[in-house]
Amino acid sequence: MAVNPNQSTDKASFKRTLAVSKHIIAVAGAGLSAASGIPTFQGAGNLWRSYKVRSLGTPKAFARNPSRGWQFYHSRRETASLAEPNVAHIALAEFSLPSVREAIAPGSTFTLITQNIDGLSRIALDAQPPLLEMHGRLFEVLCTSKACKYAELDYTSPLAPALAGTEFMEKELKIKRSELPRCKRCGALVRPGVVWWGETPRFLDEIEELVLKADLCLVVGTSSTVYPAAGYAATVQEHGGKVAVFNLNRSEGDEEADFLFLGPCEETLPDALGLEIPNALA
To answer: Which of 23, 74, 135, 239 is catalytic?
Structure first.
């Protein structure tokens, strides 16, 4: 797609577009949770900084070394458990309320499609729709037994005694498979309920339907490099919809957006939506 010669950074113009939009979606990425202290892709400790996430977050990597896999995701769980939704999460949650949205975009629908696995949008939304966590949930565990397939949200910390304190370790431990988190139903090894590289994201059919219907797409805190999410904004534009990007810095493809708002999304997003979020919720 070519550079959009009519791209605007004018909030008043965006609000006029927002006011007449009827089917609104937001596609969120790691930048949405940055102000909450969630590291972008990497785990919290020094141990994991030497690893590429793609070398850890794959089915083959977990099968080959579930001890390493669980130490990595335990570290991420511990980081996320200490985090709270920031103003940008709260703004999207407020906008999702029909009573609030009616004054901003009368008669509109809204769905948040997030690539984040940290669960902060779920907390902000109080676990209510509209929310599609396409890359899974960090606090979900899935049984690895094909005969069982048990899944549940489990916020226990640690999930297994052997993982206790490993988030602070500078050196990886070799934890026996029998001491790693187990399924409560059948006793088999469980894995994190996240979508790994090479696996199919969740809710793709539902998301495709929403994208094809959307007349406004808010791109929030994502560099738009991971597909299929990276293509949603372009699809919205292809059928006549508008795209507004909210990112800290310039990112791939943002020159094609109809609206571009650079800066911390916890500042730009509430302002553009016309919402005043109390600082106590930050």
So the answer is: 135
